[in-house]
Amino acid sequence: MPYTEISQLPESVQRVLPLHAQDIYKDVFNNAWKQYKRPENRRDNADREEVAHRVAWSAVKKKYEKGDDGKWHPKK
Description:
By secondary structure, the protein is mainly α. It has helices spanning 11-16, 19-35, 48-63, and strands at residues 64-66, 72-74. The chain has one domain (12-65): Rna Polymerase Sigma Factor, Chain: A. It has a two-stranded antiparallel sheet.
């Protein structure tokens, strides 16, 4: 289920990520959704959506870090 707009992202993602990070999340999720369409491309028979979410979070973590407030902030 690719996302066409940031407003479609899970509420938990929207609540903690700034807009730029949400945009990264959406774009990477959509790319991973396409890339891992075939089950043989996923490890341990993982669910396609689960894999796409993991890949999206990984991309966000490259540029953002979780602060003491529970929200994500750009890395310095």
